[in-house]
Amino acid sequence: MKQISKTFQLPVMLVELAKIQFNTANASQAIRMSVETAIMHNIGNYPDITATRHHLLTVEERKKLQPFTLRIEDWLLQGLSAMLNSNCDSNVIILALLFTIDRTWESNEVPFPTATVPKLFNVLGSKWDKRLQSAIKQIVNSADITWNLSIETCAGSLGILSNFQCAKTEIINDDDADKVNLFLSIKNHACEFKCKCLQFDCSKESFERLKTRIFPLEKKCNVDRAVQFFLLNFFSVRNSGHTFNGKTPKTLLKRLESVLPLSERLKEVIITEKDIFDVIRKYKKEGSALFFIDPIYLDANVYQNRVIRATTSHGTGFNWQEHARLAKELGKINGNFIYFCRITVSRHKDKNGNLIDTSDTLRNADIELHGKIDDLYWGRGFYYLDVPMDNGTIERIITNFSFNGSTYYGERNEREVM
Questions:
Q1: Which of 294, 306, 355, 396 has the smallest CB count inside 10 Å?
Q2: Phi and psi (nearest 5°) for 197?
Q3: If pLDDT is split at 50, 70 and 90, which confidence band does 108 have?
Q4: Could you tell me the CA-to-CA distances from 84 to 18, 52, 102, 249, 261 in Å, in that order?
Q5: R_g over Cα of the chain
């Protein structure tokens, strides 16, 4: 990691306290860790501290400053400057030292449970909707089953991992290399990721330039590519990476508060980039495993218009043949699964918010899609729960175990479609 050499005039006492705080004899390391801590714990959110930046030291104290030269990454200093909206001078470093040593911010932070993390980014079909979250909670809490291993085959935007912890050992997988790269960057390089995001000036011009940048995914973890993927997702209409949505730096700073808890959440999680069928095949004999299966919905193509796309094993879709193969594979696993699908087609609207398709067209399409799902899962000893969503769409959650509120997927009247 490339570093630069910078010299700051700092109070010796503050540096010594920082060395004690971080249990190191190295002053440069203590200062660096103070800067990183200040950024990750959002120093800019504490006006009582930041308001004192111009009155940090008395005249007598300033006479006792000493130069400290440290080797530090430029992105770290730039991130601190962006968060405090100030040039990264000695006063800003002193502010970071005071913030870290004082630690009164710890009592002001909202504690987060191990398995509850605010959303960082979004993709179509993610499981962040409160109705789906409630349904998942109902299923896992009432199943009366102990799982030692949980596996998300299609992690998406981490809506399940961020809100549930069903087993001690957790695996998240996605065959989209950009998502996996983002997960690994936040897990292993959270501060660098956050600092580089903070340097984005939130303008349409910068957004358009960012779309043209090329960051290869040849190495296992490319933080610059992760930053690009996140920013294009966050600052675009419908998270497609195409049209700038006008969000402000304040909104970005608020969203980046999720980086630290997400990094902590991912610390013990195994992250893989494999084909969904390879993951199922590898763990299908694990009797105490719980699979979360959330592939691209049948007859849906949610990635075709994304600006930045990494190669996935299924291109931009998941066709009928693959869904049929998936249904067969789910019947072979020794553990349990929770499978998400939809039994109604998407309701597309025009620019005025009116449905494009007629009611007859939607009804016929719903009957066809519902029938396809029934053909794959009816009469195989499974259970299901339907979750009504917006505009008449219905999410169906299918499992191979019973739970409170579940319906057995096999009675004759369950084959009747609307």
A1: 355
A2: -65, -40
A3: low
A4: 20, 12, 18, 12, 21
A5: 25
Give this prediction's pTM. Answer: 0.88
Q: Tokens 């111009």: give the residue.
A: 54
Distance (Å, whole) CA 286 – CA 57: 62
Q: 296 with 125: CB under 8 angstroms?
A: yes
Report the relative pairing of strands 394-399 and 336-342 from DSSP bridges. antiparallel
Cα 186 from Cα 19, distance rounded (Å): 26
**Which candidate, 300, 286, 410, 406, places its Cα nearest to that of 344?**
300
Does residue 229 contact residue 178 with C-beta atoms inside 8 Å? yes
Give the residue carrying structure tokens 């997960």. Answer: 183
Which of 52-61, 371-380, 402-411 comes out lowest in average pLDDT? 52-61
Q: Can you read off the two tokens belonging to residue 321?
A: 């043949």
Per-residue confidence (pLDDT) for residue 311, from 0 to 100: 47
For the chain, give the longest Cα–Cα distance: 87
Number of Cβ within a 10 Å radius of residue 215: 15
Which residue(s) pair with 189 in the sheet? Answer: none
Residues 6 or more apart from 44 whose CB is under 8 A from it?
50, 83, 84, 85, 253
